[in-house]
Amino acid sequence: MKPISRRTMLRNTGAVLSLPFFESLFPARLASASTAGKPPLRLGIFTVTGGTVLESWKPAEAGPLTKLPSILRPLEFAKDDITVVSGLSHAGRSDNLNAHEHCAMLHLTGASSAKKEGGKLFADISVDQAAANVLGKETLLPSMEIGLAGGEKNYSFRSRDVLVPYEGNPRLIFDRMFRGRTPVVPNWKRRAESASSNQVKPPENVSLERSVLDLVLGQANDLRRNLGKTDQQKLDQYLDSVRSVEKRTAFLESRQQQDLLDLASPGSSKLKIPEALPKLGTPIWEITRPTDHDPARHADYIRLMADMMVLAFQTDTTRVVTLAAGSDDCMFPGVVTVGYERHCHTLEHQGNASRPEDADPIAREACRQIHAWYTLLFAETVRKMKDIDEGGSSLLDNTVLLYTSYMSDGGHGRDEYPVVLAGKAGGALKTGRHLAFPKKAPMANLYVEILNLLGVPTKSFGDSQTSRVAGNLNGRLPGLI
Q1: Residue 336 gets which letter from DSSP?
Q2: What is the DSSP letter of 409?
Q3: Cα separation of 168 and 149, whole Å?
Q4: pLDDT attached to residue 467
Q5: Which among 387, 386, 456, 450 is positioned nearest to 423, based on CA atoms?
Q6: Distance, CA of 155 to chain centre
Q7: Alpha carbons 222 and 150: distance in angstroms, whole number
Q8: 3-class secondary structure, 168
Q9: 3-state DSSP helix/strand/coil % of the chain, to nearest 5
Q10: DSSP state for residue 218 in the 8-state scheme
Q11: Which of 129, 166, 224, 439 stands the most exposed, by the fewest C-beta atoms within 10 Å?
Q12: Is residue 445 within 8 Å of 429, Cβ to Cβ?
């Protein structure tokens, strides 16, 4: 093979590195605004620990929601904005995991199996990351994973063996969201009008699907002819990586331009920037340790993290947020008013059994009080989202907000998970009802439905097609959409 001089290499590849970004060649997807001026759809997951107390959570009958059970009663004001789903379970196997790890790793993945091998965790992609793979292409951050997770509680997986860490420091979360930029409410109507006016037009006979790299394709092909097979593959990988960086850089430049226009003419809602952020450099244990012993501090922490989720959606920083709230090791003095035990994990085991009537009734009532407390905090988040106007619809209207737990009950149960969907997914989700499915219907089927609601075409997810009852439901939840 004829040797390639350094001058030739620099001349060919240097053209790729030095070319400017041509906005007219930017893919149409990134150059356009949301569909017809509508705000985008978001996915929020608000997940707590300890499952629930089923008889105080599940409505007595399927159909329109009437009187809500005691745990869900804080959501009475939003009864027409929620959907209660019952009967859902996880059936995935475990290998070398304790009960908490098993529940946690199946939680958002619906995996048919989960395991720990050589200290490494294996499950499946989680529903939040599957959504982020598509929705995240439109935002500054593909997704946010925040709150009290880690250790035995690992919920989000980018792939079978890639775990996504959660950030528990609200100061770092805020800085990640807004470093180098001013928080602003997008003006969706203006963005749509800007896109429809075709202010930026491509040159004649140039496809919008082309990239800047296509302009140097001839030079790259000349170079490729002088390379061996292995080096050709390396060159292709290099060009792909440059193309990826170019697209992302172009998106960021486009987004900066949109933000500047929104600062001059923002959307209709007002931003509320959290004031109680920890000081920069505060150790994480100083932030999270008080939540273990003081329910008031615990509630303030959850409220702050929930405000981060709302702010991320309102500013379109990301469209996918998973918030892990609560801890099995927390104490609940003042929240629990019966008996003498206040330790959550102890109450979870005392208050749960294979049959509710076999459980300690006092501990079970204590668990009910804890879960009603969590729901109260979730309801506050729902109210905030419901009050944010996005130009004729609310932030809640344009969101799928899943309220659930990583266990179905405090005894490590995996049948009859608590599930509430708040929001209307842009009008695609009919609310104000209770949908009761057969016992052991796969929770993964719900994730199939959620992804499809978000415009992420999905036929199967986790064990939606392989669990014992999958054949009866065909991997879906009939009637949800």
Answers
A1: B
A2: B
A3: 8
A4: 75
A5: 386
A6: 11
A7: 51
A8: coil
A9: 45, 15, 40
A10: H
A11: 439
A12: no
User: Do residues 226 and 1 make contact, with C-beta atoms less than 8 angstroms apart?
Assistant: yes
Structure tokens that stand for 44 in this block: 């929020």
Q: 399 and 313 in contact (C-beta within 8 Å)? A: yes
Q: What is the dihedral of CA 290, 294, 295, 298, to 10 degrees?
A: -10
331/292 Cα distance (integer angstroms)? 6
Q: Are 386 and 78 in contact (CB under 8 A)?
A: yes
From first to last of its 481 residues, the chain has per-residue pLDDT tens of 455 554 544 444 444 444 444 344 344 444 344 555 789 999 999 999 999 999 999 999 999 999 999 999 999 999 999 999 999 999 999 999 999 999 999 999 999 999 999 999 999 999 999 999 999 999 999 999 999 998 899 999 999 999 999 999 999 999 999 998 899 999 988 887 776 665 544 444 444 444 555 555 566 666 777 777 777 777 777 777 666 666 776 777 778 888 888 888 888 899 989 888 999 899 999 999 999 999 999 999 999 999 999 999 999 999 999 999 999 999 999 999 999 999 999 999 999 877 778 889 999 999 999 999 999 999 999 999 999 999 889 999 999 999 999 999 988 889 999 999 999 999 999 999 999 998 899 999 999 999 999 999 999 999 998 877 756 788 899 999 8
176, exposed or middle or buried, with CB in 10 Å at 0-12, 13-18, 19+? Answer: middle
Token pair for 180? 């180098």
Provide DSSP, 251-312: HHHHHHHHHHHHHHS--SS-----S-PPPTT--HHHHHGGGGT-HHHHHHHHHHHHHHHHHH
Buried b (16+ CB within 10 A) or exposed e, 287-318: bbeebeebbeebbebbbbbbbbbbbbbbbbbb
**Residues in Cβ contact with 426 at an 8 Å cutoff, skipping those fewer than 6 apart:** 38, 39, 41, 393, 397, 398
Distance CA(403)–CA(57), nearest Å, equals 12
Give me 38's structure tokens: 């509508």
pTM, entire model: 0.86
Distance CA 144, CA 323 (A): 8
Q: Is 447 helix (H, G, I), strand (E, B) or coil?
A: helix
Structure tokens at 78: 């939003």
44: phi then psi, degrees, rounded to nearest 5: -120, 140
The Cα 420–Cα 432 span in angstroms is 11
Judge whether 96 and 117 are in contact, CB under 8 Å.
Answer: yes
Rounded CA separation 318/158 (Å): 16
Q: Which amino acid is at 221?
A: N
Cβ atoms of residues 112 and 93 within 8 Å: yes
Name the token pair of 168.
């528990």
